[in-house]
Amino acid sequence: MIKVGIVGASGYTGGELLRFLHNHSNVEISSITSRQYAENPVYKVHPHLRDSDLIFQDIKPSEIDADLVFTATPHGASMNIVPEILKNGTKVIDLSGDYRYDDIKTYEKWYNLKHTNPLDAVYGLPELYRKEIKKASLVANPGCFPTGAILASIPLVQKKMVETVLIDSKTGISGAGINPKPITTFTNCSDNVIPYNITNHRHMSEIEQELNKPDKVKVCFTPQLVPVIRGILTTAHIFLKEDLKDDMSTEYLEEIYEEFFGDEPFVRILKDGEIPRLSAVRGSNFAHIGCFQIDKHGRVVIISTIDNLVKGASGQAIHNMNLMFGFKENESLESLGMHP
Questions:
Q1: What per-residue confidence (pLDDT) applies to 210?
Q2: pLDDT band at 325 (very low <50, low <70, confident <90, very high)
Q3: How many CB atoms lie within 10 A of CB 232?
Q4: Pick the catalytic residue: 144, 189, 220, 291?
Q5: If phi over 0 gives left and psi between -120 and 50 gives alpha, with beta otherwise, what is residue 45?
């Protein structure tokens, strides 16, 4: 049994962490923090957690008594919190972007922030870094867009078959966070599709970092807001190297992806042309990958779906926690999606 704390537990990701941890047999939630909602019961903010007796507290992160702390804090805030927690011998899983980058200059460029406390962290995508996560004290939980994009592309990139990857991602409104914004109001997003940060979304740099480790590829990324609450559907247009265009087939693509992901507990490969659905992964920690089409120009089309709040955030964080403490990988994450 371990003690777990959550800094910034009042947001959507905090609520999802609490939802999954509620049934975790090896976890005691020792404290949840929120300045705004201090002394309020958790269900006042997260109404689906009415059976919980947890109370929000306004305490310093360094004073949390825990074996592990999730920092569900904004970009730029985590870097001022994480080092103090680590000094106590407490492990940390950070859900912000502050520790995802190998090169601090890349972070500072794309987030327009000065990084004041750089630390070594393991990038928390279990399908790529399972061994490293198991030994880590600090895990940087991946962004939601990068999770879907990397899973859709990495098997071909690691085989050094790829020239360019164009990522088109449709995301639900919850990805914008719990605080309302003009773009997320019903009148703006209902019956609408809104491309944004069309060529300069900061998650492109994170995708590029991970896809460029096995081989140098060109990465392009455009996100679009669609009128759903949860989920990211990523269409990866993967342009193969010239000498490989004539040797590809749907069957071979499926074989590559099945071999790469093997017995991964949360990745499902959809065959026979099946297209992944957002509703099939809603509320779950699963990633569905399918389509596996190729056109006459050598363009491979792979589609992935994830729940942005679960596999794209809190569920993946709990998967990382399970790895760090030697628990069963799918402990508390077994629930399937909620279709329809």
A1: 98
A2: very high
A3: 28
A4: 144
A5: alpha
Measured at the CA of 256, the angle between CA 132 and CA 249, to 5 degrees, comes to 155
CA atoms within 13 A on the CB side of 117: 14
Q: Does residue 13 register a pLDDT over 80?
A: yes
Active site residue 144: yes
In percent, the amount of the chain with pLDDT more than 70 equals: 100
- pTM for the full predicted model: 0.96
Question: Contact 215/153 with Cβ under 8 angstroms?
Answer: no
Please name which of 8, 89, 217, 116 lies closest in space to residue 99, comparing C-alpha atoms.
Answer: 116
Task: Specify the pLDDT at position 180.
Answer: 83
Confirm if 147 and 283 have CB atoms less than 8 A apart. no
Dist. CA 26–CA 65, nearest whole Å: 16
Dist CA 309 CA 177 (whole Å): 10
Burial label, 234 (beta-carbon count in 10 A; 0-12, 13-18, 19+): buried
> Contact, 336 vs 282, CB < 8 A?
no
Q: What b-and-e string marks burial along 116-135, b requiring 16 or more CB atoms within 10 Å of the CB?
A: eeebebbbbbbbbbeeebee
3 state DSSP class of 257: helix
Structure tokens at 170: 């449709």
Contact 94, 139 (CB under 8 A): yes
pLDDT band, very low/low/confident/very high, at 300 (cuts 50, 70, 90)? very high
Q: How confident is the model at residue 247 (pLDDT cuts 50, 70, 90)?
A: confident
- Which pLDDT value is given to residue 243? 79
